Amino acid sequence: MHSNLYKCFEILRGMAKKRKFIAYRRIERPYTRKSKYREKSFVRTTPANRIVRYEMGNPTGKFQYKLHLISDTDLQIRDLALESMRLTSNRLLEKTLGRVNYFLKIMVYPHHVLRENPLAAGAGADRMSTGMKHSFGKSIGIAARIKKGQKIMTVAVNKSGLATAKKALIRAKQKLPNSYHIIAEKIA
Predict the structure, then answer these.
(1) N or C: which end of the chain has fewer CB within 10 A?
(2) Rounded to whole angstroms, how far apart are CA atoms 88 and 23?
(3) Which helix (H) or strand (E) element contains residue 65?
């Protein structure tokens, strides 16, 4: 009894696994039209955005420096990766500098719908799968489309928090696919 239950949980856990993002990283022509008229809409449902907040810290504060996280390549980034980036960098800035001594903003929005054509495997799969005949796919998530040289995140701090802000952006960089660089600029 318990071994059958254990096998069921193993199967369910394997089904819920996310596909590797290398399948979605490249930017291609989007074929995901959303319309208010159902018959003209290609995508029936859009998954919820997992990014909780886009601005953190003190938005009205006067700061001396701005640091930008800038992409080195064209790619797509899932909303999960952007939320993970936000959490790590915000936690470091809040613990070290306090809530009023920085302003962090995510500069990209995940609007592109990612799709997957799930092909069934195993016994009896030929009766449930349509193969590649109707291969538009179900929506499985959303991603932000990033161009080379585009700002992904910006942190505004005073001179005393410059090292901490740079450390926060380095941590954010490690949560994202591909390579990025950090640019600091002095605000007049």
Answers:
(1) C
(2) 25
(3) strand 65-71
Domains annotated on the chain, with CATH: 16-115+137-186 (3.90.1170.10)
Q: Which two tokens stand for residue 141?
A: 């998530």
Q: How far apart are alpha carbons 139 and 157 in whole angstroms?
A: 39
The string of pLDDT tens digits covering residues 11-21 is: 544 455 677 87
Which residue carries 């856990």 as its tokens? Answer: 13
Residue type, 3: S
Residues 6 or more apart in contact with residue 95 via CB below 8 angstroms? none
Q: Which residue has the higher pLDDT, 179 or 123?
A: 179
Query: Rg of the chain's alpha carbons, rounded to an integer?
Result: 21
Task: Give the tokens for residue 152.
Answer: 């992904």
Distance, in Å, from the CA atom of 20 to the CA atom of 138, rounded to the nearest integer, reads 16
